Amino acid sequence: MPSLKSKQRLNQFICLSVSTLLVSTALVGCGSGESKAKNDSTPIVTVPKPKNFDIKTSLEMRDVVVKVYDNFDNSLVLEQQVSTTSNLTMTLPKVLDTSHLYRIEISTKPSSLIYNFLKGQYQSVSINLHSIVSVDVSNLTQTIYINPNSEAIYQRALIRSGQLPNEVEDPTGINDLHVKLATQDVNTALLNAFNRINIPNLNPSYQLNIFSPQDVSTVAGTNVFTSAFFSFGYIQQWANNYPDNPFTEFTKNLAIDLKDGQLDAKKVRGDATSFESLIPPTPDNVDPEKNNLVDIVKLQENTRNLFASALKEATLQLATNFQQKATNPDGYMLLEQKAYSGNTPTITSTLTFRVPGAGDYRRAVGFVDTTATCNGSIYPCKQGITGINIVNPNLPSIEYLIGHYEDSANNCQLNIRANGVLELIKGSQIYRSVLDADSTDNLLQVDKANREYLLNSSSTEPNNTSLDYSFVQVKIKENQVQSASAGLDSRKAPDQLQTTQLQCNFS
Length: 507
Description:
Blueprint: H1 4-22, E1 26-27, E2 38-39, E3 52-57, E4 61-70, E5 75-84, E6 88-91, E7 101-116, E8 121-124, E9 128-134, E10 141-146, H2 148-161, H3 176-190, H4 219-241, H5 246-257, H6 293-299, H7 301-321, H8 324-327, H9 329-337, E11 381-383, E12 403-407, E13 412-416, E14 421-426, E15 429-434, E16 442-447, E17 452-457, E18 469-477, E19 480-489, E20 499-505
Parallel strand pairs: 3-10
Antiparallel strand pairs: 1-2, 3-6, 4-5, 4-7, 7-8, 7-9, 11-16, 12-13, 13-14, 14-15, 16-17, 17-18, 18-19, 19-20
Protein name: Lipoprotein
Organism: Acinetobacter venetianus (strain ATCC 31012 / DSM 23050 / BCRC 14357 / CCUG 45561 / CIP 110063 / KCTC 2702 / LMG 19082 / RAG-1)
């Protein structure tokens, strides 16, 4: 029989052999057969991510209010009065819900100031700026960019969610898809200007003349340099035409212009807000026959090239004013060589319809690729029409129709929302339908030569005692709403409603 000492030696040998396996999970008593294993009860501390928001604005702002909202229910997460937006980091008071969007707002007060980098001085400012983001759990600190780009994305996302400019703002309808598509819209129109430029906000201690040849000696440095001057070149271009409060006024007017997703000097229909634009008037794409990449891009070519030329001139002017031509000739040459609009395509496509830069690249309402009817319609028909957030290039688009219409003579209103909701209203009469790809959501080609169409929308199944479908029907000519009706019909693709409950004219 082994002695007690031999048992102890055996225990010591086993413990030494397996200690590397056990050290991370438990402490094992070795050296005595009577030793006992003890579990490590030290808790593992997990720090929630993100813990902080690092707020980056384009220009230093002083004496402003920063608020963080949970966009799901509009609840306030954090509110902070800040003396300056330079080096602004905010510690979050709670763990963020990764399934929610969060909205960060900067609002000004009568005492607020903004740094005018073109004049090198502070001036009064009155503006509300927004950024709407998903939760990034990859780091303890999440960077939040609040600038003309983020404001335009927020305003475009509101439209994509179903909001219209004439209504009280309600951001809670915005979801991830709306933000994603709005971001694509804005970045395509602006060629990514102000998109995630990771530099300090401009202030007396950090100005654009800080760039040197060393900054363009690496790929990363070159990207930062060209992005910064290209982005602030927009402000210089605006200031050349509207010198008062250039950053604030540019940001406000840009967001209005881009609500329709295009840099085109146009507003969403029914938007009564006055605004200025640097874009010359852009032509509508009214001919469905030309709903292809080459023809749409060609129609917008003059607008796109004129704006790109003016933007390049303003960017080089800005670089010269901040000594880059003299002290950083390689950087200045990069700005000379940079593209300020997308290239003109040589091969056509019916799957994509725009290139980066200024212009109106929406498809004309209508179709010409079929004479087939659907559901017994008397006219050529396409069914399965939706709002603009479901992108199907094989179906007609309602982009040009989005907006608010009024028939003042009959006190009628029509809303056509980006999410596909149609509403015809007169007093207490409200008729509503949704374009959600049903067979009863269809577009009839009434007159191909004159580009006249009927847009029908109803539920998939009859929803009344007469077993008729309840329709909202819109008459369209060359992208313009002529009239709208609500009523009943036993057919899925009616031309004239069998029973009209409300009819309004908008031409």
